[in-house]
Fold these 2 entries.
Entry 1:
Amino acid sequence: MAIIIDENTNVVVQGLTGKQGLFHTKQMLAYGSKIVAGTSPGKGGTIVEGIPVYDTVRAACESHRVDASVIFIPAAFAKDAALEALEAGIKVVVVVTEHIPVHDEMAVVAYAKRVKATVIGPNTFGIVSSGKCKMGIPPNQFFIPGLVGVVARSGTLTYEIVGNLTAQGIGQSTVVGVGGDRVVGLSFVDVLKQFEQDPETKAVVLIGEIGGNSEEEASLYIKEMTKPVVAYIAGKSAPVGKRMGHAGAIIERGKGTYEGKVKALIEAGARVVELPFEVPEVIKEVLGR
Amino acid sequence: MKMYEYMGKEIFAKFDLPVPKGRMVSSPDEAFQMATEIGGSVVIKAQVLSGKRGKAGGIKFADHPEEARSAAQELFGMVIQGLPVEILLVEEKLQIDRELYLSITIDSAAKMPILIASAQGGMDIEEVAEEYIVKKHIDVELGMQGFIASDVVRRMGIPLNSPQGKELIKIIKTLYQIFTQKDADLVEINPLVISGDKVIAADAKVTIDDEALYRQLDLPRVEERTAAEKAAHELGLTFVELDGDIGVMANGAGITMGTLDTLTYYGGKPANFLDAGGGTGEEGTAKALELILSRNPKSIIINIFGGITRCDDVARAFASVKKNRGMPVPVVIRLVGTNQEAGRAILKEVGIEAYDSMQDAIKKAVALANS
């Protein structure tokens, strides 16, 4: 089953002809994603990697049924690109771009809510429904189909953990990167709700970090879940007040601490591991292997 | 980017949000001049980026210019919460009838701005009882409307038809304008003072979203990072200085934090956080090692999980640095992912054995530091 995207999802790549867009489009195609079109203002009418390029999203939508968009456009123009996709009626928009001003992010999220569409990110590696579709930048070889849903704020740490799962033959249904920023579209709780409804997903791995309160918010829902959740929270050793890379990874005014998150998750019935490589063992336990 | 109080007040003044008469000074003589200009009693405030300067003695009063000069002299010598006092703000002393609290910030859970107000200003907002705090989320598509501001004032218990009530409504609207137009993360006025019929911002805390600085070119820059952290940022690296003796580098913020956590778990103490991001070439790698070595570590752990980042590129960069500049400290490299075989071969040629397991690599780095 998978969630949000699957083997039938028609994808448009915004910024397909840029350096990032082009590299990752090749990778996505290699993974098997159905990329039906790309956009790049001024390059409409050309064909890149066998994909027709259009000047705008609406132009692409006139010739193709588009279900989802993935955005590889620089921060200063990313809000415009996201709003463009949403306004054209695309219901899933993945914003890979990092360093987008928070006021822009709030505008995109508000509009997405109004048109009832899903935004994933910004500052995300994207989303992979293993074996079916990949939208974004994670390396292809670490994702194999299976029963574990994964939802994470960070990128390479997720590849590490998913890589460990795959190495032990534990596949994934869908892996969702909610992104590292303070204001993002889907939050942990939104994805958990979908995993809970998805027949293919039997257990969930939650990869969190210090800062913000999405883990605490997720915990309130985890209490009601029937499926087991295994969590790893990064940043236990991070000092207060210092931003650890991600815009959202900072402990301020006593909020967003490691201890607070772990406590909330444990009270909700999640299993919390102390080190990233402990995840596969605990997953095996909860899956009854 | 945090801004000093006097900068926040300069912004307020530009938007006609009332602030006390005053100006920033950087010497006792200037303080004397400013106090003379203002006439009457003045308040002299240390300009540092930390809070709670009142309790640390960072705010003084003077009734005449000579007093202002000596108060300034005392303040210039102080260190408040580790920060040296180098600038002061000299302002007219306000007659305070009442102190309120007003701020607008970002509620990441709600994904929208939140306005927080209270008729109990002048103290730490976190210590005010829930029933005295007014909170209002602002729909960014609707923005700040007059009726929203009015309802906040009503909930604060201030009569809408009083001169202060009307002023307050105006200030709320202006503050939201500043918040959006300046790409602020936070705009906070504590206390917002009622002085007769007037309402005046006695303090100003304005923090600008770092990601928006590129389009806020009129704003002054305030640098809080160390020189090293700043240099790193310019090369696409995120570097944070810590206290320990094991240098750390990884690609990705999450995995860097994970490396620090694992290191700490095994008894090591990280000397720094360094996220090299994706695709750091030789110059970036050399700079990264330079930054790490500047912390005088006993060993270094490099944890690369190459997705987009190609392992052979990383290996080539390290090999080059080792050959051309040398590595005075033992380095443990964990290299996994795209082109890992090619990468490990390159490292082997320069005598570095690359690890497969993050756990093993980190344990080794700890052992080396402790030996």
Note: The longest helix of chain A spans residues 19-31.
Entry 2:
Amino acid sequence: MPFALQPDRERDLQAILRRYPTKMAACIPVLHLCQDQNGWVSEEVIQFVAERLELPPAHVKGVVTFYTLFNQKPVGKHQVWICRTLPCALRGAGELLAHCERRLGVHAGETTKDGKITLRTAECLASCGTAPMMQVDKEYFENLSFDQADAILDKLQR
Amino acid sequence: MLSRCDHMTKLYGAPNGWTLAAYEKEGGYQAAKKALAMSREALVDEAKKANIRGRGGAGFPMGVKWSFMKPHPTKPAYLVVNADEGEPGTHKDRTLMELNPHACVEGCIIAAYGIGAHTAYIYVRDELHLSKARLWGAIEEAKKKGYLGKSPFGIDYPIDVVVHTGAGAYICGEETSLLNSLEGRRGEPRLKPPFPAQAGAFGCPTTVNNLETIAVVPTMVLMGGEAFSKMSAIHHLKDGGCRLFGVNGHVKKPGVHELAVGVTLRELIYDIGGGVLGDRALLAVIPGGSSTPVLRADEVVSAPDEKDPLHAWHGKSVLDVPLGVDTFRGLGTMLGTCCATVLAEGTCPVAAMHNLMQFYRHESCGQCTPCREGSAWLFRTVEKILDGGATMADLDMLHDIANGIMGNTICAFGEGTAMPALGFLKKFRKDFEAYVRGERTRGDARLALTGS
């Protein structure tokens, strides 16, 4: 089935187009808009974006594959990112990741069996002064202890 | 010299400090009003006198960059603000966007006017959702008040500010890559020339400034360029004003603080950061983001030549040199983003390099072969060293790989990968050799401190 945006997101698309002198410039924001609705960027999403922005599908696909935040396959309901880069690692990010992997029974990059959580590592999220941290969907959780991380994961799995 | 100030950070922690009401109570938007009543030339002149060195890492003088912008007969000009904060160890721009977004917007108004642009794009990395929301909120508030739009402050000079987002790519912090990303393309860096001032966003004359550079502009305008510059202890080195300093890693009080330029690493680590975790000895510091080569705590300055700008610190510890663009270049590293990552005694430098090489391998955009392949080989070779399968020849090979990247790529990401690799290798050679000789194993490759 072809992809289409819900009416409120369609309005957002129109607003995005007004911000730029070219349609191409809307490519990344519009892909975000579609992914917010669809959970991932499917072939149908690529077709939709290509048509609406008058771009070759290959261009859109090239953009999708360049940026790590575009999911090229379905993912869990919630995205949990743990920053693994040096400043966080110095404050125990490696240990936090291992703890979450044990607790969720998945490795980084995998989704829990109930489909609720995809656990991933992130490269520096500009939260070095409040490490270790995790990003859950669109929210940051900083200065985390194992207990706090557990409470967050519990809530997501409920 | 440690000198605290709060020009950009006054509203940090204040209730609703990110709102227009709070910002105006502290004199917000008076700078924009003043600047838009000046001539463009006079404004750029003040900016030059302020000696604002770009806060994104390269340290190019902001006023000089602005002066490169010449009106084009047919094309519009653009201001592009780089808020793609993602250099490991850097956590300052985010605080401005979240806690003082109006300073960012006011800075955009002044800078856009200064370079002859009517549109400013603030490129924020997508992960910073709160930053984006606060910036959009500030833009809406400023529009309603008439500070943005058709005639800001009643002056016939339309200005619009737009927040644009990336999608998770460190390389988009490189200015030409950022421009490609803004145009809706893969974020691969462009060859220079042409420089952005000639052909930047959408093929038009463009100035790309770091977000903090822009956010300090209102302060500079209110104080006047020269007075602003003189806040700095190294004003004489054309490195002026105040800036945000971050400290992270193994310190008791990690965080972001606004200080006059000229503070030393020792002051940043011990006075601001509260000292090393567990009162351990200091092993090393990465002075300003992961691409700036590491400094050992026991290094001393060697500048016997009286003409050397570092001569005043000859024989002293590198920890006592004021943090400045040129002073740190003189130390063989870089000032970078002014956010220091502290490594305590007991941290494994080989593991630290391994962690960073994993980062660079992941973030290389893949356009240039030396960087794409080199970053992967650097990572794999350090991995081999940690796993105990390496020989002394592998250590030499690391040098060869790093040197093979330097100078052979389109953008500075190559150097940004090779320089820290060489830094760790040269300064901690014995630690690398210990793994090769089998005196250490993976279990010794610790980064987090235990028991503190």
Note: The longest strand of chain B covers residues 242-249.
